[in-house]
Amino acid sequence: MIALHFCFLCSLLVSLLRGYKLMHARGGAQIAPQRGAPSNVALHAAPDQRRNYYHCGDNRVALVTGAGRGIGRSIAKTLGGSVSTVLCISRTQKSCDNIVDELKSMGCQSSGYAVDLADKDQVTELINKLLAENKTIDILVNNAGITRDNISLRMRSEEWEDVLRTNLSSLFYVTQPIAKRMVSNRYGRIINMSSIVGLTGNAGQINYASSKAGVIGFTKSLSKELASRNVANLVAFLASEIAAYINGKVFVIDGGLST
């Protein structure tokens, strides 16, 4: 069965992604929840010590863009405890190598790919290569994003175009071929990272806010197309089997900023 969920909208994701701290011990060792975790959740480590509470299924393959640092790195590491393979895309080879090494040290299979997501040809070539090498990509996290802040009256055309190409156009070029494979396989999770400024706007970020508002529109529209095809979208628990009934929603995680 294929579950349904879509856009993940946040300015800070770390508290969600950290979840529970797995103690690296023998099978049956207790998992110690971090501060603030529900005290009534009793968890025990599975024989596979990487497996966390948000298990996404055996032999699943995840692809994370912008995985080399920040939120993307946290997402990749969280998924590393939930799936068998995490494919990482970052702008530099060094950042790719670093996250791949971390994932492998966890016992997760991983490969890294240095790509400029603003370059359509590079993106298309890489995604075609990954789909040729992997029968399936089960979980796609479109996390990569950049900022080029300036007030609108002074913003240069390249500042506008760089942000829109990286944050929005790449979303289409990465997602389209992978979504086709997900539809064929009758399984998929697509997680699109937006920002609170995609809802509220922000002075000096007309390019960034426009790109993130576009991510929301992209996600909502795609959910209407793919819902009947059993393809779903979101991170950690939303990429797991327990979130099968969530679809087409924007989740604002901003510590109450927009309340």
Give the integer mean of the pLDDT values: 77
Query: What would you report as the Rg, rounded to the nearest angstrom?
Result: 18 Å
CATH architecture title? 3-Layer(aba) Sandwich
CATH topology (fold) name: Rossmann fold
Could you estimate the helical fraction of the residues in percent? 25-40%
Q: Which word captures the global form?
A: globular
Looking at CATH, the homologous superfamily is NAD(P)-binding Rossmann-like Domain
> How many discrete structural domains?
1
Oligomeric state of shown chains: single chain
Assign the structural class, choosing from mainly alpha, mainly beta, alpha/beta, alpha+beta, or little secondary structure.
alpha/beta
Following the backbone from N to C, one meets helices and strands in this order, namely EHEEEHEHEHEHEHHE
Give, in spatial order, the strands making up the sheet with the most strands: 6-5-4-7-8-1-9
